[in-house]
Specification:
single chain; 644 residues; alpha/beta; nine-stranded mixed β-sheet; four-stranded antiparallel β-sheet; 17 strands; globular
Length: 644
């Protein structure tokens, strides 16, 4: 037997080593992210292992195709010592590339609540990418220890596997048998890369993890490099789901909307200042969190004071996962689901009639102010596409005041840039729409030396910087309240995204996406609290309704003050689409409903009530229509009310 299968069996043993290393990474992924993933019951383990092996098979053979071909080439020089040393280096280098992704997932998951995918490559375009990676290495040094330990095990394991070669003397029998084994191994690799899909039209997709795990554990099954490779190019292919005829989808959900003007502002058209708070998840805001300890000092005392004086939507959700997703959501009512909207090649060439352009028709000037670089996150390019005319970034600040306010990572510290922003806003022609994006409450969570020790540490790494940014917001307001336009300005505060929590219920869908949304006017004309579901996408139609905009618009949100609309929205988390209403979250894996939970009464999502609800109560057709319409308009590259 060894005469024919010697090299083949040696290759299989080496590949088995890679499976073991990836499984070790998965165990570490679970251990380090236990609070986010939750407990696993014994009954779940068999399916989790099965699913993990299927996804790991894709990762293993994606990475090791060169190793397979080099190991099983039907030539006798395979047994040469020099060639085996070459195989050792090839094996270690290729698998080192795969393992660095697997280890990076362990560290990065709390920031994204999903595995690393191709859309995360946008971070490499940041001008400060090198310094950020250096700081990341300092903060998560233990991750590098894990990685180098795995590389060492890869090297040692390869050398410990004793090489057995095929010992067939007859050349004809040797070349025929070894060629057949190469073809068989290649066929098996292709099958495994497709996720055991021999007859299927499409290879395995990330969403198929739902077959083996409940939504909270989907990321545990999905592996890298599978997730990265599978999503590269997916934005270019742009798979369009077709659940129903276009006319039927329009009848269920039509993004071309006629906004109904309201009289909440009494016919006034005030200035609008949108303040986007970096990483200010609801879990960190005492006046909004359901579980914030009463005895614990508030991290956001100033924001809490504004919430008590303004109109707050306490059940609001982000419609993307990163800062880059917030701008399309807020300015153009366009969400990010599997991939960031701005990562689609169609995005840059699309026609967008977002909020800045609509407001320009009402005589508004639009501006964007951010302490980061003007190259950061495509903010400026997308702003120009939406009709924003004025921009102030880190570079503009430094031209006037130098670089003393630079935090050595992202940009200008909030307590320095926000007063600068207040002065620049004062130069705008009224009425204006100004968007101010804070910066400092972002990893690596650095605060200026003069403020160290002055804010409560809280219970998570981000808490102190949130307290610092809240203080910077107070400084901003103290300065802007002295401006002549202050009394005629509607302030809106919203977070770009949440940022994890130390409480389990805020690590579960949908609360892991919950953020503040506050409307505030100094004259007290906006005051109240609404617990109905709201989302990023609702900002644009709500503002247009308040200002009496009378033309139809493209929007995937709703006017929050229009009581004839239904409070609900779709968010994408843990590999599934989630329809969130005031109390229900319905999970859809692109093919079927896989769960429904009353998240208000069952915050840990322990009781799946999907079987107890009708199709109408589950809103299955609405989810499908909503998703279909989103991708339909992305393909058409037309986000306007003009159907042409």
């Amino acid at each position: 037997m060894m005469k024919i299968f010697g090299d083949f069996f040696t290759f299989l043993k080496r590949i088995l080593l890679v499976y073991c290393l990836l499984m070790a990474c998965r165990v570490l992924f679970y251990v380090f992210n236990y609070e986010l993933l939750g407990a696993i019951s014994l009954s779940e383990i068999p399916k989790l292992i099965k699913g993990s092996l299927i996804f790991d098979s894709v990762s293993v053979f994606y990475v090791n195709i060169p190793v397979l071909l080099a190991s099983l080439l039907p030539f006798r020089f395979r047994s040469n010592n020099r060639y085996q040393k070459f195989l050792l280096w090839l094996f270690v280098i290729t698998n080192a590339a795969g393992l660095i992704l697997a280890v990076a997932d362990i560290v990065y998951y709390p920031f994204k609540l999903a595995r690393i995918a191709s859309d995360d490559l946008v971070l490499t375009q940041e001008g400060n990418f090198g310094s950020l990676m250096l700081q990341f290495a300092v903060d998560y040094w233990w991750g590098f220890l894990i990685y180098f330990a795995l590389i060492a095990l890869t090297w040692i394991g390869f050398r410990k596997i004793k090489y057995k070669n095929a010992t067939i003397r007859n050349n004809f029998a040797y070349y025929v048998s070894q060629t057949l084994l190469l073809l068989i191994a290649t066929f098996i690799a292709v099958v495994l890369i497709r996720g055991n899909a021999i007859k299927g039209t499409y290879p395995i997709s990330p969403s198929e993890a739902t077959k083996y795990a409940r939504p909270e554990l989907i990321s545990l099954i999905q592996s890298n490099p599978f997730m990265l490779v599978r999503t590269i190019g997916s934005k270019d292919k742009l798979e369009m789901p077709q659940y129903m005829e276009a006319a039927v989808a329009d009848s269920i959900f039509n993004p071309i909307q006629q906004i109904k003007p309201n009289e909440l502002l009494g016919g006034r058209r005030p200035n609008i200042v949108l303040v986007i708070l970096e990483s200010f998840g609801t879990a960190h805001i005492k006046s909004l969190s359901e579980v914030y300890p009463k005895q614990q000092e508030s991290q956001t005392p100033f924001l809490d004071s504004l919430i008590n004086q303004g109109f707050v939507f306490s059940n609001t959700y982000q419609t993307g996962r990163r800062s880059i997703d917030a701008m399309p959501s807020l300015w153009a009512s366009l969400p990010s689901f599997k991939l960031q909207f701005l990562s689609f090649p169609h995005a840059a060439s699309s026609t967008i009639h977002g909020l800045p352009k609509a407001l320009a028709e009402l005589g508004y000037t639009s501006a964007f102010l951010h302490g980061g670089s003007n190259r950061s996150m495509n903010f400026q390019s997308f702003g120009l596409q939406c009709g924003v005319s004025e921009f102030w970034f880190r570079e503009d600040y430094e031209k006037e005041f130098g670089s003393k306010g630079f935090d050595n990572h992202w940009g200008i510290f909030d307590h320095i840039f926000l007063p600068y922003a207040a002065d620049k806003i004062a130069t705008l022609k009224e009425p204006f729409f100004a968007t101010v994006f804070t910066l400092s409450s972002h990893h690596p969570y650095v605060i200026p030396d003069e403020f160290k020790g002055k804010f409560p540490k809280g219970t998570t790494d981000i808490d102190e910087t949130i307290a610092y940014s809240d203080h910077a917001l107070r400084i901003f307001f103290e300065q802007i309240s002295q401006k002549p336009f202050y009394d005629n300005t509607l302030f809106v505060f919203v977070a770009d995204h949440a940022s994890g929590a130390d409480n389990e219920i805020y690590n579960k869908v949908p609360r892991n996406y919950r953020i503040p949304l506050l409307f505030y006017m100094a004259d007290g004309s906006f005051k109240g609290r609404c617990n109905k579901m709201a989302k990023h996408l609702d900002f644009m139609p709500t503002i247009l309704g308040l200002l009496g905009y009378e033309k139809p618009v493209f929007s995937l949100g709703r006017d929050l003050f229009d009581e004839t609309t239904t409070p609900r929205g779709v968010i994408y988390s843990n590999g599934t689409f989630n329809l969130v209403s005031d109390s229900l979250v319905v999970m859809f894996d692109e093919k079927k409903i896989i769960g429904a939970y009353n998240y208000l009464n069952d915050p840990m999502l322990e009781k799946n009530i999907a079987d107890q609800l009708s199709e109408q109560e589950l809103n299955a057709d609405y989810i499908k229509a909503y998703i279909q319409q989103y991708y339909r308009y992305i393909k058409q590259r037309n986000f306007t009310a003009d159907k042409k």
